[in-house]
Design a protein that fits this description.
7-stranded mixed sheet, 7-stranded antiparallel sheet, alpha/beta
Length: 410
């Protein structure tokens, strides 16, 4: 069994909370029963081992149970959420999905067989290995959503070693590799997955207070909104011990403000990509942007200032794009970094760098300075073409209170 060590943990903690969904608690005993239920339903539907199955859901109790049941059928799972509804049919086609399971607002699932046969070489490879897989789509910031195919077995292996038992909010979505990673980490250690219907600061922090969450995986943008909207003043956060952040560069001004406000909460930077999975990380300190990344099965190197990663759990490849790996198996991340011995400082994507008359800068550097202004809630910095300097620096700013535009711009 691919999930034997998960099942062992579930059986050890039958009465503990496994999932909180819509303010209801679901125990590990319940989760085990639902995995068995979905296993029988999969057999009843006559799914072949190695089928490609899309699940349209969020982190609901049955979506979690079905995920584990499908793993034991060596299925390749394609998680989808309502956030990608307009791309749904295209994603089903790209991933060659043979089945679609739609889990509704009542957490009830419906199987639908699709008129399609998955023949891509990566799916053939997984079937030959008798391994489950997962397909995740990138956010499509460059205009095209890339579909990464992973062998789930090496992704699961890192959870065999037991670590801290946590109660954590699933801030990242069900169709995000970071969201899947959070789910697997929490459940492999007998912790509790606390789901939220909305991911605004007040909704998330209300869940932290009500269900005594001690770990919050999130993003610098969320942290910034939480601070400047002062949502933290409206909720009791004494249970919160660890906040992890990734997915985008952290402005130093936000980092400094967080550590001043919450000296007892550890802040940890994470690093991961859809192509490689989430790497283990260790921040130099809560108020530092320097981080160690790696762990068993991961290596990194820096070539011409760009981070490259080699991973045992790296994806097999893209379904709809050329391989991004070098001939010797390294993924060129596109992230510009500084190096100090074992420590890395991630500056941002090389593609996002703005070159103004030879002066190179990253958006996060400018965003950090602008965010120090009293009335600024949120800022996004970007470059635009300029006939004289090549590029110019532009910013979209959200203010807490109305202010005369010309005076603020100056």
């Amino acid at each position: 069994m691919h999930t034997d060590f998960f099942i062992e943990v579930f059986k050890e903690n039958p009465n503990d909370d496994a999932i909180v969904w819509r303010d209801r608690r679901f125990s590990y005993e319940w989760l085990l029963a639902r995995i068995e239920h979905w296993t029988k339903e999969i057999e009843r539907q006559a799914l072949e081992h190695g089928s490609v199955v899309a699940i349209e859901a969020d982190f609901s109790p049955n979506a979690v149970a079905l995920f584990f049941a499908l793993i034991e059928f060596d299925a390749t799972i394609v998680p989808l959420t309502k956030a990608v509804e307009k791309h749904k049919e295209k994603f089903l086609e790209i991933a060659e999905c043979e089945w679609l399971v739609e889990i509704d607002e009542k957490d009830e699932g419906t199987f639908r067989k699709l008129d399609r046969r998955a023949t891509h070489e990566y799916f053939q490879t997984l079937r030959e290995r008798k391994h489950p897989g997962v397909v995740v789509f990138s956010s499509g910031t460059t205009g095209k959503h890339k579909a990464s195919v992973h062998d789930l077995v090496p992704l699961l292996e890192k959870f065999r070693v037991r670590r801290h038992k946590r109660r954590a909010v699933t801030f990242l979505l069900y169709d995000h590799l970071g969201g899947v990673n959070t789910m697997l980490y929490i459940l492999s250690n007998g912790g509790c997955v606390v789901t939220v219907q909305d991911r605004d600061p007040d909704s998330v922090l209300a869940a932290v207070e009500k269900f005594e969450v001690d770990m919050l995986p999130t993003s610098p943008t969320f942290i910034n909104l939480m601070i400047f909207g002062e949502a933290y003043k409206r909720h009791d956060l004494r249970s919160l011990k660890l906040v992890t952040y990734g997915t985008e560069p952290m402005p130093e001004s936000t980092l400094k403000r967080f550590t001043e406000l919450f000296p007892d909460i550890k802040l940890q930077q994470t690093y991961g990509l859809s192509e490689t999975g989430v790497m283990r990380s260790k921040s130099k300190s809560s108020d530092s942007l320097w981080v160690k990344v790696g762990g068993e099965g991961y290596e990194w190197r820096v070539v011409e200032g760009i981070l490259q990663i080699k991973s045992k759990s790296a994806m097999l490849g893209y379904l709809n794009a050329p391989s991004p790996f070098t001939d010797d198996g390294w993924l060129v991340t596109g992230d510009q970094v500084e190096v100090d011995g074992e420590w890395l400082k991630i500056l941002g994507r090389k593609s996002e760098m703005i070159n103004v008359g030879g002066q190179k800068l990253y958006p996060a550097e400018v965003e950090s300075v602008v965010q120090e202004m009293d009335n600024v809630v949120e800022v996004t910095v970007y470059g635009e073409k300029n006939p004289i300097t090549g590029s110019m620096v532009c910013a979209t700013v959200r203010l807490r209170e109305d202010e005369e535009k010309k005076a603020f711009t100056k």
